[in-house]
C-alpha cells in the first residue's frame, strides 16, 4: 500500500512548523498514514493542549473521507448533505479548517491535521505542510 512514511511525515511537519513560526502561532501538527493511523505529531512550544486531539482528528477526518476538513465543514451545516457527520466515528470527525489529504501520483497516502489558531491560520499551516510532500 502506498502510504506516507515517518521521514515524509517529519518533512511535512517541519514545513508546517516553519509556517506556524512565520505567522507567530504555535500549533499542533499531526500526520496520519493511508489507514488514518498517526505517524507523527508535534506540539509546538506554547500550543494549546486541547488542540492535540483536534489536530490528530483533523488528519483522521481528512483521510477517512479524502476531503479537506474545511470543505467537509461547508457540507456539514444544517440543511446540507453531511449535517450531523461530526457525530460519526465516535466523535472523531472534525468539520473545521486545518485537515488536508496528502496525495502522491493521484493517490491519497495520508493526511495532515493542524490546530491551534484560527481556522484560516490552521488551513494556511496545513497547506504549507501538505506542499512539502
Number of strands: 4
Encode the helix/strand succession as letters: HEEHHEEH
User: First CA to last CA: what distance?
Assistant: 17 Å
CATH H-tier superfamily: Haem-degrading domain
CATH topology value: Beta-Lactamase
Query: Main sheet, how many strands, which sense, barrel?
Result: 4 strands, antiparallel
Integer count of domains: 1
CATH class descriptor name: Alpha Beta
What is the count of DSSP helices, taking H or I runs of 4+ residues? Answer: 4
Radius of gyration: 13 Å
Strand arrangement, major sheet: 2-1-4-3
Organism: Arthrobacter crystallopoietes BAB-32
Pfam family, one: HbpS-like
Protein name: Heme-binding protein
What topology does this entry show?
Layout: H1 6-23, E1 28-33, E2 38-43, H2 50-65, H3 69-74, E3 99-104, E4 107-115, H4 119-131
Helix pairs in contact: 1-4
Amino acid at each position: 500500500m502506498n502510504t506516507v512514511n515517518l521521514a515524509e511525515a517529519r518533512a511535512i511537519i517541519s514545513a508546517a512548523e516553519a509556517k506556524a513560526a512565520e505567522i507567530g502561532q504555535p500549533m499542533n501538527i499531526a500526520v496520519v498514514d493511508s489507514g488514518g493511523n498517526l505517524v507523527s505529531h508535534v506540539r509546538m512550544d506554547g500550543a494549546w493542549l486541547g488542540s492535540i486531539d483536534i489536530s490528530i482528528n483533523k488528519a483522521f477526518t481528512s483521510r477517512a473521507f479524502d476531503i479537506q476538513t474545511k470543505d467537509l465543514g461547508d457540507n456539514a451545516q444544517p440543511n446540507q448533505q453531511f449535517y450531523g457527520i461530526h457525530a460519526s466515528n465516535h466523535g472523531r470527525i472534525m468539520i473545521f479548517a486545518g485537515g488536508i489529504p496528502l496525495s502522491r501520483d493521484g493517490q491519497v497516502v495520508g493526511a495532515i491535521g493542524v490546530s491551534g489558531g484560527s481556522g484560516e491560520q490552521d488551513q494556511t499551516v496545513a497547506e504549507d505542510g501538505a506542499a512539502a510532500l
